[in-house]
Amino acid sequence: MSLESAIKKATSSELTEDDWGQLLDIVDLVKSNPDEYITESISVVKSRLNSGNANVILRTITLIDFLAENCGAMMKGEISKKSFVNDNLVKLVQDNHTHNNVKHFQRLEEKLSIHV
Q1: Residue 115 has what pLDDT?
Q2: What is the pLDDT of residue 112?
Q3: 62-69: long-range pairs with CB below 8 Å, 24+
Q4: Closest alpha carbon to 28 in 60, 47, 1
Q5: Which residues have CB under 8 Å from 67's CB, separation 6+?
Q6: Domain residue ranges of the chain, discontinuous segments joined by +
Q7: How far is 102 from 84, CA to CA, in rounded Å?
Q8: How far is CA 87 from CA 2, 12, 14, 92, in A?
């Protein structure tokens, strides 16, 4: 399975809770070739954050946290870039059209230190 397919499966709109097995599979895949897969995973994650579907966004936020915690310094560096945070996460929290469940998702607010 491709990385993009794995991320789409783990962040499916049909999921109402996180699938830890799928998240671990994604981590293993990224760690198998970080030079290629970190950039690709960030690209797919950005598109999933812009989906407009609360379930997809919530699963994607969990995936971001999981990638940051398990894929090393290179991944943390990409996720913590000002452009990624501001253009994706802060924008998501500040958007009036973002579902309240997403805005008040505890981990997102804590990580960004944003009050909505």
Answers
A1: 42
A2: 52
A3: 62/18, 62/23, 62/107, 63/7, 63/10, 63/11, 63/23, 63/26, 65/107, 65/111, 66/23, 66/26, 66/27, 67/26, 67/27, 67/30, 67/41
A4: 1
A5: 26, 27, 30, 41, 45, 75, 79
A6: 3-81
A7: 17
A8: 26, 22, 26, 8
What pLDDT is attached to residue 89? 74
- Count CB atoms within 10 A of the CB of residue 52: 12
What pLDDT is stored for residue 20 in this prediction?
A: 95
How far, in Å, CA of 5 to CA of 12, rounded? Answer: 10
Q: Could you say which architecture CATH assigns to the domain 3-81?
A: Alpha Horseshoe (1.25)
Q: Tell whether the torsion through CA atoms of 31, 46, 79 and 62 is positive or negative.
A: negative
Each residue's pLDDT expressed in tens, for the chain with a length of 116 residues:
899 999 999 999 999 899 999 999 999 999 999 999 999 999 999 999 999 888 898 899 899 999 999 999 999 999 989 898 888 776 776 666 666 666 555 555 555 544 44
